Amino acid sequence: VSRQLKEEIRRGFARLEDPLAGLLAMLESSSDWKGKGHSLGYCITTELQLWIKMHPAVPQSGTKLKKLQARVLRMLSQCPANLLDPLISIYQLHTADRNCLLEHVSHLYLQGNYKEAAILSIKLKLQPDQDVEKMCTPLLLQDKANLVEGYVAEYPELQRKLLQTLDKWCDPSFNIRDITRPYQGLSRYKPEKFNRRVLSKLVFRLLERFNVDPALCPNVINQRHLRTLNYLFYKRFVEKTMTEENWADHIQSTVGENRWLQGQLVQSLLRHCDARGAARWAQRCQVPPEMLPQAVAEELQKLHIQDRVEEVTKPDNYEASKKKDCYQLPISRENIHFLQTWEETLQCWEKVLQPGQVVGVDMEWKPSFGMVGKPRVALLQLALKDEVFLLDLPQLLKQAEAEGEKEKLPHFIQMLYSDRAITKLGYGMSGDLSSLAAICSALKDTERQMQGVVDLLAVDKQVDGLSPEHSHEERGVRQPEKGLSLLVQHVLGKPLDKTEQLSNWEKRPLREEQILYAASDAYCLLEIYERLCKDPESFGLGSDLTDSLVGKQSKKPRAKKQLNKQEAPSPSGQERQGPRTEPSDAPAPISPQEFSVVCDNMLQGLGRYLRCLGVDVRLLDNEDDHRKAAEIARQEGRVILTSGLPYQTLRSQVGEGRCFSVNCSEKAKEQALQVLKHFNVQVSLSDIFSRCQ
Predict the structure, then answer these.
(1) Contact (CB, 8 A) for 46 and 9
(2) Contacts of 131 (CB under 8 A, 6+ apart)
(3) For 508-540, b where at least 16 C-beta lie within 10 A, e where not — what string?
(4) What confidence score (pLDDT) does residue 467 get?
(5) Which H or E element spans position 618?
(6) Three-class SS of residue 640?
(7) Checking phi first, is residue 427 left (phi over 0); if not, alpha (psi -120 to 50) or beta?
(8) What pLDDT sits at residue 550?
């Protein structure tokens, strides 16, 4: 706005006997102010707001002001968002009769102006006198979760009420249609955005943002724990990549004394074990005998308490043979030190903080399995040429706090990472440091101050070597290597043994297998770096490897130890953005009637969408094992559509190009377009709804 116009506006206000009434009359008679952007009406209104601050005698009170407030309220429902605050300020609406304000908002709500009612309520701070469920339900149906979040932001009691409401809707026995039925004619209604999965994600977001106790939402937490249970059973009994001890630790911490989860555990045991095996695991996981089916209860009575739990699926031979084929730590066990006191740790520092030192750095934390909060580092590994130090961070932090020296740990970490004379080796350092900052906020800026670091994840992207698929074929193991393990295999000849990766790293004492795994994870970085520096050309790297890499680090946090079934990394250790199957030539076009697929149980939405387009679709049920998809595909000549870790298992069980990995983070429509494009399926109008839905 030009200075000349501003001066003219101010002179106009000075000539008016009642500037507040004058502005209102002008706005009521003009349609210009209703447009978006900085209209003339907006300019005049904001100038009056500034003019009033310089002329404090202008604001009115009493009956005259109440009449003006009533007129302003009638305008606010049509008012552009940028005029709300100036008008509320000019006409002192925060001093208006609260009942009148609530009645006006209620009128907006009854007219179906839910968004406007909520925004005005926030501006006038009316939320404590309103029904949070009633106000927020239509907003959620219109996919306005951010507005709902803003509505309860300043009111802890409303946050709790909203979370309890959302949790009630996520109860599997609750009929969500009871909520949606009164809003059938709602404009901009997005039913696909109103389901348990979306609501569950919203609950977790709100729990974390408002720091509310998750116990307030038992339904959502139970369902997330159930998904964790299913994932653990998959890892143990299908993929067979989790040790008995790890599995039992996680099962016990997931289920605890929750009766409902104990019931789900029993059902899963019966699907994967015989009655005797189920009884042994039920005993190990402390499931109350009265919750067991009769056959399992009878087997339990036969067991002696001292019996060692036998391995039901007996993967020990596989695990033992795999360890022989894995990277072996070249230092003796006595040179691996587990540090729990500051006296021991100070001796470690003296060795680590030496100019010219090369240090392999790694961290471990308990898998979150998608629960609330960032992962918290439980173990910091520092590897030198002749020894490895494992720092018990929770214990050291606790001890430092008790001694009033909380700055001890951040001081050491900052000295280490900011010293250019010490070379720090890591793999996905950005992810490690963000998890470290979760237990020690003083370290949140460490990444910006880093000097002398080599992130081998950045090197990994440059190294010429076997793809995950080739390594899988040549070595003949059950799972292809990925991430650091693949780099270790290519550079040093053998992959890492990752069976302890998903351990409970917060449990003490650590098992011997965990200690060796943690030490290997850090020490292998030293050997990789030494080998690459000696002969960079043979790995497709430039001869100036050291100069080009020191100081660089990958910005992509690694996904290890945060895995859950829905968010598993791709075999390369990086999130997949597109399909894994890559045909050399585009296939010949086919119609949906000629295209037959079987959809894994995490892709039911995609399956229904494809069926609408005329594709011959079979859907796995929620309780079906992923392997059933391979059976159906072989028997009926179908293509498997899956995602995440199951892709690796299923693709080896069908012909080439007969298994396709879909991006789970996309909506069903985008997934369907991806599938149709990949297989060159041409959809015509006559195909749509040509099959029974």
Answers:
(1) no
(2) none
(3) eebbebbbbbbbbbbbbbbbbbeebeeebeebe
(4) 40
(5) strand 616-619
(6) strand
(7) beta
(8) 53
650 three-class SS: helix
Residue in the structure block whose two tokens are 């310089």? 54
d(CA 234, CA 246): 13
Q: Are 365 and 377 in contact (CB under 8 A)?
A: yes
Dihedral sign for Cα atoms in the order 316, 319, 324, 328: negative
Beta strands in 136-262 (DSSP E): none
> What per-residue confidence (pLDDT) applies to 301?
84
H or E stretch covering 337: strand 336-339
Measured distance CA(74)–CA(116) in Å, rounded: 12
210, 357 contact by CB (below 8 A): no
Question: Which candidate, 621, 619, 616, places its Cα nearest to that of 637?
Answer: 616
Buried b (16+ CB within 10 A) or exposed e, 208-226: eebebebebbbbbbbbbbb
Would you state the structure tokens that stand for residue 507, as one six-digit string?
A: 């449990």
Q: Which stretches within 507-618 are classed as H helix?
A: 512-534, 545-549, 604-612
Residue 54: CB atoms within 10 A of its CB come to: 8
Residue in the block written with tokens 């943690």: 518
Q: What is the pLDDT of residue 562?
A: 40
CB 619 within 8 A of CB 599: yes
Enumerate residue ranges in the chain where pLDDT < 70: 1, 31-38, 57-61, 304-323, 372-373, 464-481, 542-586, 645, 648
- CA neighbor of 352 nearest in space, from 329, 321, 382: 382
Reduced 3-state DSSP string for 149-176: HHHHCCCHHHHHHHHHHHHHHCCCCCCC
User: pLDDT tens, 184-234?
Assistant: 778 777 777 788 889 999 999 999 999 999 999 999 999 999 999 999 999
- Do 483 and 573 form a contact (C-beta atoms < 8 A)? yes
d(CA 117, CA 103): 11
Can you tell me the distance from the alpha carbon of 126 to that of 107, in angstroms, rounded to the nearest whole number? 14
H/E element holding 268?
A: helix 259-272
Beta bridge partners of residue 379, listed in sequence order: 364
Cβ–Cβ under 8 Å, residues 561 and 428? no
State CA 50 to chain mean position distance.
45
Q: Radius of gyration over alpha carbons of the chain, in Å?
A: 31
- Are the C-beta atoms of 183 and 137 separated by less than 8 Å? yes
DSSP 682: -
Cβ of 118: how many Cβ atoms within 10 Å? 25
DSSP string, 178-226: HHHGGGTT-TT--GGG-SHHHHHHHHHHHHHHHT--GGG-HHHHHHHHH
Beta-carbon contacts of residue 486 (< 8 Å; ≥ 6 apart): 460, 465, 466, 468, 471, 480, 495, 572, 573
Beta strand 453-455 with 336-339: parallel, antiparallel or unpaired? unpaired
Phi, psi of 252 (to 5 degrees): -65, -40
Give the total residue count for the chain: 693
The amino acid sitting at 15 is R
Do 327 and 524 touch, CB atoms closer than 8 A? yes
Q: If phi over 0 gives left and psi between -120 and 50 gives alpha, with beta otherwise, what is residue 282?
A: alpha
Phi-psi sector, 637: left (phi>0), alpha (psi -120 to 50), beta = left
Distance CA 563, CA 215 (A): 23
Residue 107 one-letter amino acid: H
Q: Looking at this protein, which amino acid is placed at residue 157?
A: E
Structure tokens at 271: 């699907």
Distance of CA 306 to CAs 302, 309, 310, 356, 558, Å?
12, 9, 12, 53, 41
Q: In whole angstroms, what is the distance from residue 477 CA to residue 466 CA?
A: 15
Of 313, 247, 323, nearest in space to 498 by CA: 323
